[in-house]
Amino acid sequence: MSSARNLQKALRPLARQLASPAVQRRTFVAAAGAVRAAAVSRAAAPVAKQQTRGVKTIDFAGHKEDVYERADWPIEKLQDYFKNDTLALIGYGSQGHGQGLNLRDNGINVIIGVRKDGKSWKDAIQDGWVPGKNLFEVDEAISKGSIIMNLLSDAAQSETWPHIKPQITKGKTLYFSHGFSPVFKDLTKVEVPTDVDVILCAPKGSGRTVRSLFKEGRGINSSFAVYQDVTGKAKEKAIAMGVAIGSGYLYETTFEKEVYSDLYGERGCLMGGIHGMFLAQYEVLRERGHSPSEAFNETVEEATQSLYPLIGAYGMDWMFDACSTTARRGAIDWTPKFKDALKPVFNNLYDSVKDGSETKRSLEYNSQPDYREKYEKELEEIRNLEIWRAGKAVRALRPENTK
Ligand SMILES: NC(=O)c1ccc[n+]([C@@H]2O[C@H](COP(=O)([O-])OP(=O)(O)OC[C@H]3O[C@@H](n4cnc5c(N)ncnc54)[C@H](OP(=O)(O)O)[C@@H]3O)[C@@H](O)[C@H]2O)c1
């Protein structure tokens, strides 16, 4: 399909939107967040003034849901709420970095707990955390903390739980950013203590985006949930934590639904499914005699550079409408064929998530001592696929890369 001739028309409203106030740009910006996040350095611009928004009950296609917003939690209220708390953030990977720095910038008393002299320890020092002041080894941080934020990798949460569990004593709160460990406790062995609140706030994006959107004064969408409420205040605490780590909007869920939808989504449309679809389309084009550049442009470049941002900004109908009559006729006709072919795969995937197969696979794979080397080998294979080598050459031709 050649959507190039429609692109100018399609991008006109987008350009108008980008010229309008920041609050109206949010949807597009969220869609583009992951791309931009990669470009935002750790020591980037100072924190922008936070936008405030009203509380809302929103009608999502006929289903009314309360959406919690940080407008309910001005910074003074947030700081007052946590004034007697020490947040011990364990693990300083993608989420630890984003959530930790946002908490610190929000004036919350947060300390980091990681393995001494590991990669995370060094990263934390680079981000201004000071050993002995707000950077400790894991056990020491937990002992000082009242809210324990378990942001170790999911495999590490399971591995370290026998050691960590006895330290989560009555009066502390246990916080996760994924339902994985407690929901699949038969596999992870993360059986939470019965006398503490257990809450979750799961940002819907990378920790880099958690940080970059916060610095832009926006805020990532997150879901929050309560697994165990012993104080009667767990829900309020989960919402406050969500705001404190830099969320803009908070959607209520359960630990089960969060982990099922998350594992399902990342294996499906977000990553695995879309990669499979790219590969299938590209391979057929190549087998039918098309050049690598043509196959790549028609499969990935046009999608990511032109059409997907339009879906993100305005929705599928708008994107269809912005394309030629020929393109949209074909797209509408072929949608049900793809849906019918793919739905059984998605159902298999959901079953595999729900029955714990995906968790088992992930724990087994990611607990191997040489998992990083094995994973790097797989990444190298992907990097070396013709489609992605062609993509590298196509991207090199973009104006910003030819200066
Ligand atoms: N990444 C995302 O996009 C994302 C989004 C939403 C929610 N989440 C959830 O957030 C949580 C954290 O994920 P993440 O992606 O930020 O994790 P990550 O980047 O994989 O971070 C791993 C952290 O765990 C530490 N670690 C690994 N093995 C350890 C061990 N045996 N003992 C002690 N520390 C160990 C690492 O320390 P060293 O440097 O010392 O190895 C590092 O600080 C997970 O529950 C995840 O599902 C992630």
Automatic annotation (TrEMBL):
For this protein, the record's InterPro entries field holds: 6-PGluconate_DH-like_C_sf (IPR008927), 6PGD_dom2 (IPR013328), KARI (IPR013023), KARI_C (IPR000506), KARI_N (IPR013116), KetolA_reductoisomerase_fun (IPR016207), NAD(P)-bd_dom_sf (IPR036291)
EC number(s) on record?
Answer: 1.1.1.86
Q: Where is the KARI N-terminal Rossmann domain?
A: 63-253
- What does the UniProt cofactor note say? Binds 2 magnesium ions per subunit.
Provide one Gene Ontology cellular component.
mitochondrial matrix
- Indicate the segments forming the KARI C-terminal knotted domain, all copies: 254-401
List the catalysed reactions.
(2R,3R)-2,3-dihydroxy-3-methylpentanoate + NADP(+) = (S)-2-ethyl-2-hydroxy-3-oxobutanoate + NADPH + H(+); (2R)-2,3-dihydroxy-3-methylbutanoate + NADP(+) = (2S)-2-acetolactate + NADPH + H(+)
Spell out the family assignment given in the record's similarity comment. Answer: Belongs to the ketol-acid reductoisomerase family.
- Biological process GO annotation list? isoleucine biosynthetic process; L-valine biosynthetic process
Q: What protein name is recorded for this chain?
A: Ketol-acid reductoisomerase, mitochondrial
Signal peptide positions are none
Q: Where in the cell is it found?
A: Mitochondrion
User: What are the record keywords, sorted?
Assistant: Amino-acid biosynthesis, Branched-chain amino acid biosynthesis, Magnesium, Metal-binding, Mitochondrion, NADP, Oxidoreductase, Transit peptide
What residues does Mg(2+) 1 bind to? 262, 266
Q: Where does Mg(2+) 2 bind?
A: 262, 298, 302
Q: In which pathway does it act?
A: Amino-acid biosynthesis; L-valine biosynthesis; L-valine from pyruvate: step 2/4; Amino-acid biosynthesis; L-isoleucine biosynthesis; L-isoleucine from 2-oxobutanoate: step 2/4
Q: Residues that bind substrate, according to the entry?
A: 324
GO molecular function terms noted in the UniProt entry: ketol-acid reductoisomerase activity; metal ion binding
Organism of provenance: Apiosordaria backusii
Cofactor list: Mg(2+)
Q: What class of enzyme is it?
A: oxidoreductase
